[in-house]
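Residues determine shape. Take a concrete instance:
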Amino acid sequence: MNAPAASTVPPLIRMQALTKRFGAGLPVLDALSLDVAVGEFVSLIGPSGCGKSTLLRLLSGLTPASGGHITVAGRPTGETGDLAYVFQDPTLLPWLKVAENVETLLRLRRMPAAERRRRSAAALGLVRLTDKARAYPRQLSGGQRMRVSLARALALEPRLILLDEPFGALDEMTRDRIGEELLAIRERQQWTALFVTHSVAEAVFLSSRILIFAANPGRVVHDLPITLPYPRNHDTRLAPAYLGLVAEVSAKLRAVEESAGTIFTAA
């Protein structure tokens, strides 16, 4: 019997010798070459200043590269509507109700009102905030505001979601719960994700792959597959395989951060 042919599916993201420099200092990112396959959940961890958030901005087209090439779905960044960005802060408009906030990006894309309302309602259902559709942001908890931010991204029905420490300001229990909900939504929608975090435990729980960055200049020093099966839930965090991976990734990150003289945390 002949061996099966290798997959010819192109990567969703392709970076080739990608470099970003601000001013005359060392590059924030230096000659980064990396592919991300369709459906991967990739977490980026590493010391502050190593270029994790900069990489998301390059992918989104918000920041131009200094050198190299980067494509999303085969097209240059800034030329695709296939991605959504979730920032550290929910950045909700306080004078708009929750459903209207979710529609904001759809309105900017001049989507018809009926389709905007349909997508807003569907996205709020995914994040379990249907009953808050007519509330204002000031009436929500921190976790609920972040869910609205996530719903706004999901309403775009993206192929790729960029998440820049979206749960960092939340308490541990809320962060864990939203992480579980995020994976449940991904199971239904099958998008690809790049997720910046400073929490090793969070990265291991969410990811199919973890990239550990070093700084000065920013570069990937470890590319680690996370082989825990999906779906994942609270029991996953108690499993020996999960705890072993947290210890392994923590040790590698500690070595990177100690070599740079930075402070390590595994929380």
Remarks:
- The chain is about 35% helix and 20% strand.
- The longest strand covers residues 13-20.
- Residues 8-82+196-267 form a domain with the Rossmann fold fold (CATH 3.40.50.300).
